[in-house]
Amino acid sequence: MDIFVSSKKLSELKTNMLVIFFSKEEIKKIFKKGIKPLFKEIEKVIISKDFDGEFKKTMLVHTENKIKRLLLVGLGNEKKIDEEKIRKACYFVLSEVKDLKLETFSILLPTIKKIKKENICKAITEGVILSDYDFNKYKIEERKRVKDIKYVELIFPKVIGKGEKEIIKKTKIVCDNVNLLRDWVNEDSDKLNPLEISKMAKDIAKKYGLKINIFDEKMLKRMGMELIINVGRGSRYPPRVVIMEYKNGKSDNIVLIGKGITFDSGGLDLKPPKYIENMKMDKAGALTVLAIMKTVAEIDMKINLIGIMPLCENMIGPMAYKPGSILKSFSGKTVEVEDTDAEGRLILADILSYAERTFKPKLMVDIATLTGSVLITFGEYVAAMLSNNKKIVNAMFQSGQRTYERVWELPLYDEYLDEIKGDVADIKNLGYKKGLYAGTIIGGAFLRKFIDRTPWIHIDIAGTGWYEKRRYYIPKGATGFGLRLILDFLNTL
Ligand code: BES
Ligand code: ZN
Ligand code: ZN
Fold first, then answer.
1. Which atom of ligand 1 is nearest to the CA of 344?
2. Measured in whole angstroms, how far is the alpha carbon of residue 273 from the centre of its chain?
3. Which of 117, 252, 368, 417 could form a disulfide with 362 if both were Cys (CB 3.0 to 4.6 A apart)?
4. Tens digit of pLDDT for each residue in 431-454?
């Protein structure tokens, strides 16, 4: 879907449908004071009290001029309108557009006193593009019937600045990448296995001129990445580690690391059917990193960014690694495998110490579908963050508030670090009540042990990365959570 700004006057506009947003107060004003709305058809609707501007309400009105239809969309109480309300309201617009099978339509940009014009542009672009997602690649029959939306025209009531146009362009790139990321995470785990993901990364690196390095299993063995090798042992697809470097700035490197378990069966500690069902989503962290690398290149962000993706499939079988094994990590610390299903922390551990030593970055961010426990704590609404640096936590929190990809900090007190001391090795991968207590914190504590001094933040997206049902502009299945959050965060550095 294309999205562009038009400077047409309403009197010159010819369109299938013009979307107009209203707050409750605006409707009341028109009703009580007899102020003339833009179109006489709207006046009729308001006098009839059929449309009151309530949030979630829409009203379709036919006209007899060049604008065939008007879609009135409620934003609710003026005081309560924020960017998130606008994004959500756009979902109702898209539903109507799809019902009517329109290929093009127009939106009149609203003016909302307390929200900056460029933020309104951003929220509408996000709402429209993110709502226009459906994982329908494999719905052959349905795809024959539905028509894709070709373009949306944004109409400005007054003059538009260069700034707004830029924001719309950039936001479109970001949101197209969120939709691409959703497609990747929803994709079958046999299609997007470690080998295929590394090929995809290679193609992206080539297209955008990024440096790329791919370690195969032989290289990983030679380097002493025993944790990654072992997690990947039970699979027909060998593990890979992909390292991408984007250089376009003067300041020190920032490293992004994403958990890339292309399928998590649990290994010999096999998951029960209900929990294994959606485990193709366990690659979300790595793919978020890949999508971010692509996005920063497309928007020409001024930054030096290194993206690292450890990729393994955690499978059961005669070759699989075992509970009770003692493994030597890249850092030299030994790890007792209490549970083969706590595999994410193992592959991330090797990479965290590797990245710290190799790149000496000023900051490391890891993103991972690490623990089911985060769902118990926050449900699907908030991601957990754990860190060794207060400043980073605060910045990430603010990015969460702005993007509505919200994060909340959990504590990493020393007592938690003590809980994972090994019985026969340096560290164990469950610890505290065999994984029963403080699961998300213990996951973070394990990672913490593999970082020496670098500022670091871990984001657990096991709850926010996958939805059981659609919620407005966020579809069922892969949500794409994390890309907008981390991009906003990188922008504040
Ligand atoms: N990939 C899972 C975490 C997960 C759970 C992601 C639910 C998405 C939805 C992870 O590898 C895992 O299995 N974690 C275990 C840890 C436990 C064994 C300490 C868990 O959360 O049950
Ligand atoms: Zn697992
Ligand atoms: Zn996992």
1. 11
2. 26
3. 252
4. 999 999 999 999 999 999 999 999
